[in-house]
Specification:
The protein has about 140 residues and is α/β, with parallel strands linked by helices. The protein has one domain: Phosphohistidine domain (Glucose Oxidase, domain 1, 3-Layer(bba) Sandwich), CATH 3.50.30.10. About 15% of the residues lie in helices and about 25% in strands. The protein has two helices and eight strands; from the N terminus they run ββββαβαβββ. Helix 1 links the parallel strand 4 and strand 5. Helix 1 runs parallel beside helix 2. About 35% of the residues are buried.
């Protein structure tokens, strides 16, 4: 019999309030541009140069080591929320005001949005491959 796995907890800083989310942790190994890098019609990573090309971010707890700027990133995230392909939660190493604006606009439009929290990048690896819950208080648990 396998012994029970120890629970993993971290407290992130809430960047954008939203619904608590749960899903498989998807740790991106490289920064991504949402504009051209994520297909808003499917939630798949479309950038053929990205190490996780072809994977879906939909319903995942998305751990972002960074973003590659584009003022259109917020529009892509807004489209993902509208189409139902948004991540269950977003965990960022550094806040990205333009990306997060997509969540703020979606919330203002009355749409349910995922949480966005900030967490030190060195803490990401502990969640790899696990089912993760991000609470409304910013607590990340697996």
């Amino acid at each position: 019999m396998t012994p029970p796995r120890e629970k993993i907890f971290a407290r992130g800083q809430v960047l954008v309030a939203g619904s608590a989310g749960q899903g498989e942790a998807l740790l991106l190994t490289a920064p991504i541009s949402f504009w051209g890098g994520v297909d808003p019609a499917s939630g798949r990573i479309a950038d053929v140069r990205h190490p996780q090309h072809g994977l879906s971010i939909a319903g995942k707890v998305l751990f972002l080591p960074g973003t590659i700027g584009s003022s259109s990133a917020s529009a892509v995230l807004l489209e993902l929320v509208h189409a139902g392909y948004e991540p269950a939660a977003i965990v960022l190493h550094e806040p990205d005001a333009i990306l997060l604006l997509g969540l703020i606009v979606a919330r203002e439009m009355g749409w349910e949005t995922p949480m966005a929290v900030k967490l030190e990048r060195k803490r990401f690896e502990a969640f790899r491959g696990l089912i993760v819950c991000v609470g409304e208080d910013g607590v990340i648990a697996a």
